[in-house]
Amino acid sequence: MAAIDGLPPLREVIAAHGLVAKKQLGQNFLLDLNLTARIARSAGDLSGSDVLEVGPGPGGLTRGLLAEGARHVLAVEKDARCLPALAEIAEAYPGRLEVVNGDALEVDAAARLQAPVKIIANLPYNVGTELLVRWLTPPEWPPFWQSLTLMFQKEVAERIVAKPGSSAYGRLALLAQWRCDARIVLTLPPEAFVPAPKVHSAVVQLTALPQPRYPADAKVLERVVAAAFNQRRKMLRSALKGLAPDIEARLTAAGIEPTRRAEEISLEGFCALARELART
């Protein structure tokens, strides 16, 4: 990769700019440019797409995205220490990299990008889940992005792709799978990062569906799922009793046995219950 873009290895970049990863920013730098290229390629053909990257750090994945042909990369970086290193990448790819020094939770990225858009990022651990939830719950669907290719702690990744009956199955799985196809495309060991985290990481790809997998009002569905999993060990007739006085009858009408527990209910079942509760 260094030979392709003419830029120095990431270890040299980090040393030259004094970029020691900060725990409070959730930083763990991925230095192997072969791995960053694999992540970029896992998102498919980038040549006709704008890409949003959050938390580029010293720019390993950024270089992979650009080398793989991304039309335009918007890199949002909160840590101002990383800006000089990212500026060097921008110089190597004139007109194709825009760097914004800011908080990804506050930056209006959609206004700076042209469709089609892919979001590809080694997300900072401390904001990864919150960003994912925001991207999955826009005011209107389909969203401004076509796909998300995101790195999380492996435990979080497994929660996103979990199926009914597993301990990982819960609100995140339902939220993601209601509107997307979700799969894990790559798993990385701690030693792939500097500093090495205490856990494995995994890259999840979520492809936006044109419309939700099953019809349901988003707010009602979220209320049902939240109530069910907030007391996941209870039978649904008890966990959901605050949603309707006749909850047992509603569950039965939706084709769900009232004595079932949340982790046993499929996405289709929760959507059916949300539709039933929305009738009042």
In terms of topology, how is this protein built?
Blueprint: H1 2-5, H2 10-17, E1 29-30, H3 33-42, E2 50-54, H4 60-67, E3 72-77, H5 83-92, E4 97-101, E5 117-122, H6 128-136, E6 147-153, H7 154-161, H8 171-179, E7 180-188, E8 193-194, E9 201-208, H9 218-230, H10 236-239, H11 247-253, H12 267-278
Parallel strand pairs: 2-3, 2-5, 3-4, 5-6
Antiparallel strand pairs: 1-8, 6-9, 7-9
Helix pairs in contact: 3-4, 9-12
Care to describe what's here?
- The structure is a single chain.
- By secondary structure, this protein is of the alpha/beta class.
- It has two domains: 207 residues, Vaccinia Virus protein VP39 (Rossmann fold, 3-Layer(aba) Sandwich); 61 residues, Helicase, Ruva Protein, domain 3, CATH 1.10.8.
- Helix content is 36%, strand content 18%.
- The protein contains twelve helices and nine strands.
- The longest helix is centred in the last third of the chain and has 13 residues.
List keywords for this structure.
about 280 residues; Rossmann fold; Helicase, Ruva Protein, domain 3; seven-stranded mixed sheet
Helix amount: 25-40%
Distance between the termini: 59 Å
Q: Could you give a short account of the major beta sheet?
A: 7 strands, mixed
- How many structural domains can be distinguished in the coordinates? 2
Structural class assignment: alpha/beta
